[in-house]
């Protein structure tokens, strides 16, 4: 059973989807630690209710690496973590950090494209299809190998909040699914592309 750390900044609904999947026996792993860069992130309460250790760490990836190593973390999941990881943290866990992004990468991603900013940009551009992407984290922002993407029709929506809600439903499906695949050893990277075996 793999040891998982989850990093959050907000409400923690993506975190909750992983907690629920673990409790349902759908993931061959256990969340050992939830780290937030925001003291008042509601996701911390979700973790505590599930009996998971929590920590608040702001702008100190060296400390986070130390905490992860101490707990022998196998997989790091960014579940709505609204900060850019340092190279120190990324290099400490090569192809062991995954992120959920609320668009179909390579569209609407990169510097400044996070949270509601993504959905507002999607709305302003007038695209008809959006979705969510789970990818490995690399030194390039949102540039690591893509693991899974699911699209949804948003042509009937005219508010960024409604787009966010629809995309969030996809996030709650695919993030725990990918975590489960990783914990089962079913994800491989060949020539920069992910294969599920």
From TrEMBL:
Role summary: Catalyzes the transfer of a formyl group from 10-formyltetrahydrofolate to 5-phospho-ribosyl-glycinamide (GAR), producing 5-phospho-ribosyl-N-formylglycinamide (FGAR) and tetrahydrofolate.
Give the protein's recorded name.
Phosphoribosylglycinamide formyltransferase
Keywords, ordered alphabetically: Purine biosynthesis, Transferase
Quickly give the catalysed reaction. N(1)-(5-phospho-beta-D-ribosyl)glycinamide + (6R)-10-formyltetrahydrofolate = N(2)-formyl-N(1)-(5-phospho-beta-D-ribosyl)glycinamide + (6S)-5,6,7,8-tetrahydrofolate + H(+)
UniProt-annotated site: Raises pKa of active site His, residues? 142
Q: Show where the Formyl transferase N-terminal domain sits.
A: 3-179
Write down the species. Massilimicrobiota timonensis
What positions does UniProt annotate as the active site of this protein?
101 (proton donor)
Which pathway is this protein engaged in? Answer: Purine metabolism; IMP biosynthesis via de novo pathway; N(2)-formyl-N(1)-(5-phospho-D-ribosyl)glycinamide from N(1)-(5-phospho-D-ribosyl)glycinamide (10-formyl THF route): step 1/1
Residues binding (6R)-10-formyltetrahydrofolate, per UniProt: 59, 99
Gene Ontology MF terms: phosphoribosylglycinamide formyltransferase activity
For the keyword Transferase, the answer is yes
The UniProt record lists the EC number as 2.1.2.2
């Amino acid at each position: 059973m793999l040891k998982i750390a989850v990093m959050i900044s907000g409400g923690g609904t993506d975190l909750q989807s992983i907690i629920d999947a673990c409790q349902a026996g759908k993931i061959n792993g256990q969340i050992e630690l939830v780290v937030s860069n925001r003291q008042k992130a509601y996701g911390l309460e979700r973790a505590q209710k599930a009996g998971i250790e929590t920590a608040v760490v702001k702008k100190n990836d060296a400390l986070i690496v130390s905490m992860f190593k101490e707990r022998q973390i196998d997989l790091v999941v960014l579940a709505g973590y609204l900060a850019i990881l340092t190279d120190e943290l990324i290099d400490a866990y090569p192809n062991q950090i995954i992120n959920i992004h609320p668009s179909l990468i390579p569209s609407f991603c990169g510097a400044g494209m996070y949270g509601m900013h993504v959905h507002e940009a999607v709305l302003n551009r007038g695209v008809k299809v959006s979705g969510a992407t789970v990818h490995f984290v690399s030194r390039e922002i949102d540039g690591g190998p893509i693991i899974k993407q699911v699209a949804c029709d948003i042509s009937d929506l005219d508010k960024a909040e409604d787009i966010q809600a629809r995309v969030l439903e996809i996030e709650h499906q695919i993030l725990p699914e990918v975590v489960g695949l990783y914990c089962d050893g079913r994800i491989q990277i060949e020539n920069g592309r992910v294969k599920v075996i």
